[in-house]
Amino acid sequence: MSDSERLLLVASPLMHRTPAFDRAAALAKAKGVPLHIVAFDYVEGLATAGLVNEQALTEMREGYLMRHRQWLEEQAAALRNLSIVVTTEVMWVQCPLEEILRHVKELNPSMLIKDLEHESLLMRTLFTPLDLRLLRECSSALHLVAKVQHATPRKILAAVDPFKPEEQFEQFNDHIILAAEKLASQCNAELHLLYAYDLSYMYASEGMGSTIFSAGMGEAVYEAEGKAFTELADRYRVPPECRHFIMGVPAKVITAYAEEENIDVVVLGTVHRRGLNKLLGSTAEQVVYHMHSSLLAIKPSSF
After folding, report:
1. Pairing of strands 265-269, 294-298
2. Whole-prediction pTM value?
3. Residue 178 counted as domain residue
4. With helix as H, strand as E and coil as C, how does 24-73 read?
5. pLDDT tens for each residue of 202-217
6. What confidence tens digit (pLDDT) does each residue in 241-276 have?
7. Residue 293 lies in a domain
8. 72 and 130 both lie in a single domain
9. What's the domain range around 252?
10. What is the dihedral of CA 159, 192, 190, 166, to 10 degrees?
């Protein structure tokens, strides 16, 4: 376990460069930090070849792993020519979640990078996909990469929520902005700040119950939330043209804005609120399955 900053990439088992591979290489170069690449192989046909004896099966599996290691080392060599410190690893693992979490615990990476795998609604209902499990259980910042228009991000969006800060982890919005600000600085990217203001939060709050907002009350609440967002943006000197205060369901607002403005990375938090309030974590989970850009999810344990 090292105290120095490093990146951990979970590479595709298909032996080709994916968006996450390109993003990890670009970030390692921009940040000037080491990159460890691990791939988890499991070929069902090799694992269940009942007509092949155990020794032959072992040889076939090792041959496959050797080819993958050679391919990965060839990719790493090209990155080393760019002065990036790269190490590689290939493992035979059927269910990679536990191995990924073990690597995170042992390597303590500043960021875990992985390709985003879109699943159907039915699959998300019947099973818990790997990306969803990592959103909930990974202690490091998790960068799920979708399509990559720019390997090095050019536009970064920090999605914050100043609503009832006393119910959130202390200074969590600040941590989100600082993570986005640091990434933007390292990549020479444009930083935007977004607060998707959802009036339904008010109805879910304790004591509001069936209260019907008057027009005056709704306007007063809107102004109060706008003031809280402005104060947060002022504290980090975000230019007025890079502040976005939009009413609507957070997941829909974030995904729509990211798509319309060609945002490369959306930074948001994955911590749950208590009680009947809406879950911040569920917003991240909704965003990750509908957004075409990439997500950097952080939680208090990331700091």
Report:
1. parallel
2. 0.86
3. yes
4. HHHHHHHHCCCEEEEEEECCHHHHCCCCCCHHHHHHHHHHHHHHHHHHHH
5. 555 544 544 555 556 7
6. 999 999 888 889 999 999 999 999 999 988 644 443
7. yes
8. yes
9. 155-302
10. -50
